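ping. complex inputs:
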Amino acid sequence: MTNTAASNGLDALADELLMKRIASGDAAAFSTLVNRHARRFFGAAYRVALNKEDAEDIVQEAFCKLWSGKAQWKDDRGAKFTTWFYRIVCNQAIDHMAKKGRGYGGELDENTPSGDANAEEELLSSRRTQDIHAALAELPERQRTAITLFYNEELSQKEAAEVMGITVKAVESLLGRAKQALKERMLAYA
Amino acid sequence: MPSEKEFENRLAADVRGMTIPQPDAAFENRILMAAFAQQTVKDAPVTVHSGNSFTAWWNAPRLAFAAALAALALVFLTSAESFSPQPTEQQIAQERYTVDGIPLLADVDVAAIEVSSDDAIDEYDLVFASF
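pong. complex structure:
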């Protein structure tokens, strides 16, 4: 599908232009957008859901909403596609986890890959990942979402506020409380 | 105890460095298939109503079924008529011996009737055995 998109010149189009085409039912444009962003948003969904299968389902549902028009992007507001879609993914994550009837903090995937060749480093890296995982899992979901958007996705506080549909002040407050809670937990794990 | 700044940097590094598993190789295809399948189901015609063209309506399976049913009913009725039972002797007699629409033999046993002639029956020449 990527080849088809490339041959159509869709790969060169900005997300916002692809979205305009998708609004008129252009399946190739949708395919290009999925291939461009699915893995990036999987990372964001995983950091919120902390489970691979859930993260895959969340991203799939979010893209299905986009394609079916249930989630409508309005370019006249000047919002970037990625900022808008983070919001869709975050809301989808909250809905998904609520439907599953459990909070965040699934088990760490045992097959989580590590890029380290050295076994000792790999073990330490895995241990640190588990600690971070456990500490994040204990946070309320809005605090975890704020941390994910700010540190992982490297959004500004203003963008994070836009994604979460809250004020910048509220994001600051969420980040402050999350960092305090993480600090306490990380020190306890150390 | 690390300073606030040191902790912030370490947290950022740890959170960013958190190992994230890769989704399945066919992840993107799975998304596309789910989205397009959903669209196909949404767009599929559920019923054909009179608002559509006659051709579409004519082609609808329900009309073909109704036509087949009507044809079957016609065949059945035609057959039923040809195989209907013959009228009884009493019914024939009641039809023949009627004056001004009033059946003369309504309460009479046909077997007891004697007629003067089979070919030229005059209702006034009837002789009732019971008289």
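Residues 46-51 of chain B have pLDDT under 50 and may be disordered.
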